[in-house]
Amino acid sequence: MANRRGVLARGLTGWAFAGPGTLLVVGLSIFPAVWAFLISRTRWNGIAPPRQLGWANYQVMADDPELWESVRHTFALTALFVPSSILIGLIVAIALSQDIRFIKFYRTCIFVPFVASAAATGILASYVFNPQFGSANELLRRVGFPAQQFLEDPQQVLVVICLIALWGQIGFTAVVYLAALQDAPKDLIEAATVDGANRFRVFWHVTVPELRPVTVFMVVWQTITALQLFDLVYTTTRGGPLNSSQTIVYYVFELAFQTRRYGYGSAVAYGLFALTMVLTIGMILYSRRARVEAF
Amino acid sequence: MSLSADRQVGSRRRRLLPFSPWHLLLMPLSLVFVFPLVQMVLTSFMTSADINRFPPRLIPTTLSLAGYRGLFGQSHILHWLLNTVIVAAVSIAGHLLLCSLAGYGFARLKFAGRTPAFFAIIATVMVPIQLLMIPTFLMFSRLGLTDTLAAAFVPWLASAFGIFLMRQFFLSLPKELEEAAKLDGCGSFGTFFRIVLPLAKPALATLAVFTLLGAWNDLVWPLIAISDDRFYTLQVGLTTFQGTRRTQFELLMAGNVVATMPLIIGFLLAQRWFVASMAFTGVKR
């Protein structure tokens, strides 16, 4: 009896500590996620009573040309953003790990854009890339290139959004790689150097294998970032021109809060969730098979 | 997690150039990252005549406060700034309290349902925010939270990331101090608040910076839940300029300065904690 009371008291203490935080985090995501699933099986504008449709919303997705356009844009953006953010982040981290003059100043300069919000970054970018008044076109003019339309050109818009996202995100990837570089085993590097291996070979054979787990993590993280990029699209183009920068998340936002198609919007959001899960799990399984212990 | 320079590399080959070749990469790169922010500040002090000149000018001819005058005169920017400060402060307080309590519970206390609860928290990381937008909006509007500041800070009172960070930190602490406190007759909460929490200052600083960045810069939650412009946060307020003042760049940039400078100054003053917070997000999963 006394023992049982002890277990109960311990349980109460445990939940007194963990309960409020758990309730808030789980309550604001698992519960709405289940609700979103129920909504995705209805036609509903939030006012009139919802009409049950079964799986109809999911069937409609298959032949919704606007959805497939936004899937294409999302994939293009992800394919541009993920490799470039990782490659540039790694190069910047290597550069920033050098013991040279002004290195603290360089670090500050390269990390600082990370603290600017996506909203402020988007507004600043629409000024810098403004075809008439922006400094991007001024720079092109000075080096003898013709002026570009940037965010107003359907052909260029995704590339420009990717550049803007890189400006805000390189600080992050560089910090993560920089921390990983400093965790790389110093004695191993020293031993290899003493044995007469040149710096590039040391880097390739000793440092790069050490960076693999971080790289797997960064690929997964940046893929999720790119798939769910919303703030920047909202503050630069709102999906335009001519829907050419409309991504899946932006389409969900439009369906939900502009046309009030809650049911179909939730179904598309679930489609995005499934896509994120498949890509994430696929990348983790692939890295496991390649024997990289990242997760 | 100090990021001191790596002394291994870059000491020998300094003969071709009088300086390290890395400067040739880092100098222009730093310029690319900082130039837009410098231009933002300079443009906020220009007249619209200066901005519309061709070719465009970088340095203002006269120091003009027209952008700031328009900003403070024609928008609720002071409201928005105050709202954002309140939202960030409440979010940080919530995070520091709830995440450290929960993190300690998961790291040290044994109770029924501990493992499933922790897994549920980790699982929430995979749920994309877009899936939650509609039900959360409906939930908030039924609870009467739309058009209140609570809509902006309630989702930021605790996070899976914060609970995980604090749990990892408490797992790395030696248990001896807590056991000694218990022998002295300290209860669980007494031990936590008097002994453990004071040791957790570095982790709490990391968590505070993470929450500050997240809550200050958040756009999605306040955008969908708040439509009364007196309750906007800075980020939402900024986006409303784009429709109505598309070409008033001096005003847009003045707004940007008000919204970003507090964090930039914070970054310059406490770069160590900002970098630690960024690095933790990536490395210590």
Provide structural commentary.
The complex is a heterodimer of chains A (295) and B (285). Chain A has 13 helices and two strands; from the N terminus they run H-H-E-E-H-H-H-H-H-H-H-H-H-H-H. Chain A has helices at residues 2-27, 30-40, 56-62, 65-96, 103-111, 118-128, 135-142, 157-183, 186-194, 199-227, 231-236, 248-257, 262-289, and strands at residues 42-43, 51-52. Chain A has a single domain, classed as MetI-like fold (Orthogonal Bundle). A two-stranded antiparallel ribbon of chain A has the order 1-2. In chain A, helix 10 (199-227) packs antiparallel against helix 13 (262-289). In chain A, a hairpin with a 7-residue loop joins strand 1 (42-43) and strand 2 (51-52). With 295 residues, chain A is an all-alpha fold. Chain A is 72% helix and 1% strand. Chain B has 285 residues and is mainly α. Chain B folds into two domains: 22-70, no CATH class; 75-283, MetI-like fold, CATH 1.10.3720. In chain B, 69% of the residues lie in helices and 0% in strands. Chain B has 15 helices and no strands. Chain B has helices at residues 22-44, 48-51, 66-74, 77-108, 114-123, 129-142, 150-153, 160-172, 176-183, 188-199, 201-217, 220-225, 234-244, 249-269, 271-283. In chain B, helix 4 (77-108) packs across helix 8 (160-172). Residues 1-11 of chain B have low confidence and may be disordered. The chains are: A mainly alpha (295), B mainly alpha (285). At the A-B interface, helix 1, helix 2, helix 4, helix 5 and helix 6 of A face helix 1, helix 4, helix 5, helix 6 and helix 8 of B.
TL;DR of this structure?
The complex is a heterodimer of chains A (295) and B (285). Chain A has 295 residues and is mostly helical.
The largest β sheet of chain A comes out as: 2 strands, antiparallel
Q: If you consult CATH, what is the topology of the largest domain in chain B?
A: MetI-like fold
Question: What is the straight-line distance between the termini of chain A?
Answer: 43 Å
Amount of beta strand of chain B? under 5%
CATH superfamily of the largest domain in chain B: MetI-like
Helical/strand content category of chain A:
mainly alpha
**Helix segment count of chain A?**
13
Which topology of chain A does CATH recognise?
A: MetI-like fold
The helix count of chain B comes to 15
SSE pattern of chain A: HHEEHHHHHHHHHHH
Largest sheet of chain B: none
User: What oligomeric state best describes the polypeptide chains here?
Assistant: heterodimer
Average of pLDDT of chain A: 89
Radius of gyration of chain A: 24 Å
Q: Considering DSSP H and I runs of 4 or more, what fraction of the residues of chain A is helical?
A: over 70%
